[in-house]
Amino acid sequence: MRKPTQIERLYLDFDGFFASVAQQVRPELRGRPVGIVPFSGGKASCVIACSKEAKALGLSNVMPVGEAMAACPELVLVPQEPHLYRRAHNALLAEIESVVPIDAIKSIDELTCKVDPDQRHYPEDLGQAIKRTIAENIGQHITCSIGFAANRQLAKIACKQDKPDGVTIWYPDDMPGPLLTVPLSDIPGVGANMAKRLVRSRIHSTQDLYETEPKQMRKIWRNVTGERLWYALHGYDIQAPESKRGMFGHGRVLPPECRSLDGARGICRVLLTKAARRLRREGFYCSGLWLWLDHGAGNWGGKRILPTVHDDQALLSEFQVLWEQASSQLPRRPTIYRIGVTLFDLSPANSRQLDFLLADDSERQRWEAINTAIDLLNYKWGKTVASVGFWPRENLENIGGKISYTRIPSAEDFW
Predict the structure, then answer these.
(1) Per-residue CA distances from 171 to 5, 212, 226 (Å)
(2) DSSP tag of 165
(3) Fold type of domain 17-82
(4) Which residues contact 326 (CB under 8 A, 6 or more apart)?
(5) At what angle do helices 214-221 and 192-200 cross, to 10 degrees?
(6) What is the third-level CATH fold of 250-414?
(7) Same fold, 9-13+85-233 and 250-414
């Protein structure tokens, strides 16, 4: 296992990304505390992201609107615009790539780069070159924090130390000094539950964690992730194996006017159709469908095991079965707050196993041909002009185009 003696990685994190993008395109928001909310028209109950100015006043992401407004009456609430964030993300990647090759996109607002050998001796210059390129070609109101270190994990930790708009450089010769002053909660993988496990193991600080044996960390994490983290903290070039796709799905918090059974059903059908489109675009079939509902008084969930399929007709037919089950088991006139659909038990399209007992191959081929025609038609027009079954024309605000920590939507997700 190799232990670098020079800076080899940088980690970049955009500051208050959603709010910063809004400030860049809307001059009236610049310099003001901004909170991004899920819905327009005062329907939102949660601030999902804050601007740098709002964070400086004590606000944080995922904060109730009432609490945020009480703490900061001048807060400006702005509805989310995922399509705008996607476009800004792509533009920013192009500018950064003109300065340094991007190694991996970690989320909509985070990425990591390998530092070329001729740039390793001047990380400050490289960081400033990235910031200057963004300011000149995108705008001055989207800023980023950058961390440099021997490996990606250390660079990520360093990146968080001088936010917003900072550059933190951890040379291998200076380690572990800077790392030991970092709060334990800033270490990747140390969430609330893991912190409790660490306390039970008498680990109360980053220095305690650093001085723990690798096998002990493996035992605490209950898998090899803990041991990998030990080697990363000690400066080794350690990379986790690439994860494989396990499922496709969409979830959504419903706007108030859609929290009835009929309103939720319409949106859920759209979410399922969009998940099926992603399944086909990425070359997979599935053999399982899971539906879940949060109705305030509790949660309902159900699943169906399917033949190996990826067409809308097969999935929507099974969805209808699940929806009828949910309708019969939920309280009378429930208020449904959140819904979600997941397609699981995936198999690559080039290795589909036919179901001999169902003898469904000819029927599936016809529906798959219909779906191919529908997908091509929608792709030609850049919007949903054809679908299997009804397609609602209202309450589709950003549906299927949600920005998550693990996925950046494509243009097709907004059709």
Answers:
(1) 8, 22, 24
(2) T
(3) MutS, DNA mismatch repair protein, domain I (3.40.1170)
(4) 291, 293, 300, 302
(5) 130
(6) Dna Ligase; domain 1 (3.30.1490)
(7) no
What are the pLDDT digits (tens) for 280-312?
A: 999 999 999 999 999 878 899 999 999 889 999
Name the phi and psi angles at 210, rounded to 5.
-60, -35
Q: Which two tokens stand for residue 265?
A: 């059903």
Distance of CA 43 to the CA centre of its chain: 23
Give 380-389 contacts, CB < 8 A, sequence gap 24+. 382/411, 382/415, 383/415, 384/415, 387/273, 387/312, 388/273, 388/312, 388/313, 388/316, 389/269, 389/312, 389/316
> Within 10 Å of residue 179's Cβ, how many Cβ atoms?
23
Q: How far is CA 27 from the centre of its chain?
A: 27
CA 63 – CA 35 distance, rounded (Å): 9
Exposure of 74 by Cβ count < 10 A (0-12 exposed, 13-18 middle, 19+ buried)? exposed
Contact 184, 196 (CB under 8 A): no
Q: Give 373-378's long-range contacts (Cβ < 8 A, gap of 24+).
A: 374/312, 375/277, 375/280, 378/412, 378/415
253: left (phi over 0), alpha (psi -120 to 50) or beta: beta
pLDDT averaged over the chain?
90
According to CATH, the superfamily of the domain at 9-13+85-233 is: Reverse transcriptase/Diguanylate cyclase domain (3.30.70.270)
Residue-range domain boundaries for the chain: 9-13+85-233, 17-82, 250-414
Sign of the torsion formed by the C-alpha atoms of 284, 285, 291 and 292:
negative
Q: What proportions of the chain, in percent to the nearest 5, are helix, strand and coil?
A: 45, 20, 35
User: pTM of the full predicted structure?
Assistant: 0.82
Instruction: Kindly report, residue by residue over 335-364, the tens digit of the pLDDT.
Output: 999 999 999 999 998 876 665 555 567 787
Torsion of CA 204, 207, 211, 215, to 10 degrees: 60
Triad 273, 277, 281: Cα angle to 5°: 170
Strands 34-37 and 76-79: parallel
Strand runs labelled E in 317-405? 338-348
